[in-house]
Write a structure and sequence with these properties.
The chain is an alpha+beta fold. It has two domains: 76 residues, Glutaredoxin, CATH 3.40.30; 107 residues, Up-down Bundle (Glutathione S-transferase Yfyf (Class Pi), Chain A, domain 2), CATH 1.20.1050. The chain is built from eight helices and four strands. α1 crosses α6, α1 packs across α8 and α4 packs antiparallel against α5. The protein has a four-stranded mixed sheet with strand order 2-1-3-4, covered by helices on one side.
């Protein structure tokens, strides 16, 4: 098998790539990396010294492809399927990349800040950083709400890399603080994402690890 994915099912950035792989039934070898295990972490650092996942290895092309957005674009070009993630039109593709980065930087990153702060040792919490993250997340949700109204998917009628980026952080953000009452269009969009078979599969695979998340 040519493709190997280094990932963890609980990671939102990893789920983003899993959605793309599952959308097109792209065959790959899963390599779950437990960063809390010293041996597993050491082995992964030999593959990618930065130590962050997901990372895709394409043995056939002898390429290592890190970073979720780059992986999805790589799959779209070299392993295309029925779902195309990036438009051929340059202007539309630019809008997709912007929205992809928006969900990564302004939904995913602040969501992760709130979650990971709960995992810090007592006395090492960053209350100021968490408050700033919560405010940024709230602002992002306020921006998404009117943008997604009247759309099926983030770019309209077509599922794309933007939806791969949106699903995991919205799911976890809703776990942190349900937004169904305050952002009904965004909540409806999240329900559609969760009903999408590719993301439903990623969530199902993550559920056994939910106990590892701080309450």
């Amino acid at each position: 098998m040519s493709l190997t994915l280094y990932f963890h099912p609980l990671s939102s950035f990893c789920q983003k790539v899993l959605i793309a792989l599952y959308e097109n039934d792209t065959p790959f070898e899963p390599r779950i990396v437990d960063l809390m295990n010293e041996g597993a972490r050491g082995d992964f650092l030999k593959v990618w010294p930065i130590g962050k996942f997901p990372v895709l290895r394409d043995a056939a092309a002898d390429r290592l492809v890190p970073e979720s957005s780059i992986i999805i674009e790589y799959l779209d070009r070299h392993y295309p399927g029925r779902t195309r993630f990036v438009a051929d039109d340059a202007d539309v593709a630019r809008q997709m990349r912007f929205r992809d980065r928006f969900y990564d930087l302004y939904v995913n990153v602040p969501m992760q800040k709130v979650v990971t702060d709960k995992m810090r040792p007592p006395g090492r919490n960053d209350s100021h950083g968490v408050e700033a993250a919560r405010q940024q997340l709230a602002t992002a949700l306020d921006m998404i709400e009117p943008d997604i109204a009247g759309k099926t998917w983030a770019m309209g009628d077509t599922f794309s890399m933007v939806d791969c980026a949106a699903a995991p952080p919205l799911f976890y953000a809703n776990m942190l603080k349900p937004f169904g009452d305050s952002h009904p269009h965004t909540a409806a969009y999240l329900r559609r994402l969760m009903e999408r078979p590719s993301y439903a599969r990623a969530v199902a695979e993550a559920r056994p690890y939910f106990a590892l998340m701080p309450q």
